[in-house]
Amino acid sequence: MNKHGFGRATFFVSCFLLVSVILAAIATVSARIFISEAESASAGEGQKPLPTVIIDAGHGGRDGGASADDGTLEKTLNLAVAKKLERLFSDAGYKTVMTRTEDVALGDENSSHKKLDDLRARVELAKEYENAIFISVHMNKFPVPKYSGLCVYFSKKTAGSPALAEEVRMTVAASLQKENGRQIKGAGSEIYVLDNAPCTAILVECGFLSNPSELAMLKTEEYQSKIAACIFTGAANYMSKTITEEVN
Question: Does domain 3-247 have CATH number 3.30.365.10?
Answer without folding.
Answer: no
